[in-house]
Amino acid sequence: MVYRRTHQVVKRLAARRSAILSAARDAAAAGGMAAVQIAPVAVRANVAAGTVYRYFPSKAELISELITEVSRDELSAIRRAADAAPGPSSALAAAVTTIAVHVLSQRKLAWGILAEPVDVDVTASRLASRRDISGELAMRIDAAVRAGHLPAQDTALAATALLGALHEALVGPLAPSNLEDPIKLRDAVQTVTLLALRAVGVMDARARGLVVQATTPAKALVGA
Amino acid sequence: MVYRRTHQVVKRLAARRSAILSAARDAAAAGGMAAVQIAPVAVRANVAAGTVYRYFPSKAELISELITEVSRDELSAIRRAADAAPGPSSALAAAVTTIAVHVLSQRKLAWGILAEPVDVDVTASRLASRRDISGELAMRIDAAVRAGHLPAQDTALAATALLGALHEALVGPLAPSNLEDPIKLRDAVQTVTLLALRAVGVMDARARGLVVQATTPAKALVGA
DNA sequence: TGAAGAAGTGAACAACTATTCAGACTGAAT
DNA sequence: ATTCAGTCTGAATAGTTGTTCACTTCTTCA
């Protein structure tokens, strides 16, 4: 007797899998990684705890996949913003602004993905996430250098430093607490973007122009 | 009958307390915060597990005190270096370099103090540690601004961003792995210092000069 | 020296959650 | 309708460590 999964079943299985991931993401967005516990996630996804293990071999896998997913979304947003910019320097500014806006709009999630203590080992996917985003940034810096807009430099190290600066300034424990106010938020985004651009060697005056330019299209996102 | 602690006993108690803290520090330096577990620390300190609890009410307290101690040491090193500099910009450069050299010379410890996941809540002391160091940096930036060497800016946010940049670039998961080589190490320190100075608005050319100046006295520390 | 209080010991305990698994349920094939 | 592989369930299990506490050892002082 052959048992074959019917199309309907296949769809249901896929839906369930993504429901579990989704539940994990919601939990993380609401309460950080600490809130991503098997039992609560299972409840949110309307399944039993044991069922989670039919879709993910372990909590570490579940969280890793969550990190990968969020990171992929962010990376594509960065690319989109940068590619839409008129030149390499603008592209870099757009990339930085996008990162800033993104982490701010989902602070708990961003913190969880990046750095929040988790009881299982997710260093590999965190590393990959950082590597992807830092790599993208490095490419943009490199393009600006090749265009003669920036001095030659260790672009990988610079990209990593910029990421660290953005994260620490915007979602780290010392991040300003008044970022609910959209105006303060925009100021913070502009400030860190300016800082980042200058860090890689953009002249102050030119950097200020780029910041304004980059913030304009990103403003919509801030509201979202 | 009154029992009064004799001087000798007081001394022994104090010695034991610091032996426990020391053991915790060694463990953290060797294996990160994950290695700071009560039983192993007790063994290192030549006491029983229960004894640790006669000196520290909980693991959280122990680690908090460890963080405070390390942070205090670092802060005083930063102050010393900055105060010895000839002017506000040099002082800022010296402060940044000192932080860089410090975190690099004790990478595991630095990572543990700053950001490594711990199973107990140490957010308060981590926050204090960051606040102190970021505050010191902010003061130095502010001094340079007041001296007219830097454009006006949100110094607190800038200081936080710089800290994040230094940490991520030097001890984060994407930090270069070849930093055993003293030359590479010095290059990394110079690169991030340059980046940091430019970020707050020091002109490229002047920044390069300050970096060289600041790295010279710090070189000795790199060896240590 | 002996009594009493302080300090130290380490095996047992507790709490927390990820993970398992024996049995219940679903739905595909005959 | 019946069978059975596949799927789901959720209570029980397991592993990990911080913490406790009854007991031993040490120190002070009459």
UniProtKB/TrEMBL annotation, chains A, B:
A single GO molecular function term of this UniProt record: transcription cis-regulatory region binding
Spans through the membrane: none
Domain HTH tetR-type: 14-74
UniProt keyword annotations, A-Z: DNA-binding
Record-linked InterPro entries: Homeodomain-like_sf (IPR009057), HTH-type_TetR-like_transc_reg (IPR050109), HTH_TetR (IPR001647)
DNA-binding stretch(es), residue numbering of this chain: 37-56
Gene3D superfamilies attached to this UniProt entry: Tetracycline Repressor, domain 2 (1.10.357.10)
Protein name, UniProt field: TetR/AcrR family transcriptional regulator
Classification lineage: Bacteria, Pseudomonadati, Pseudomonadota, Alphaproteobacteria, Hyphomicrobiales
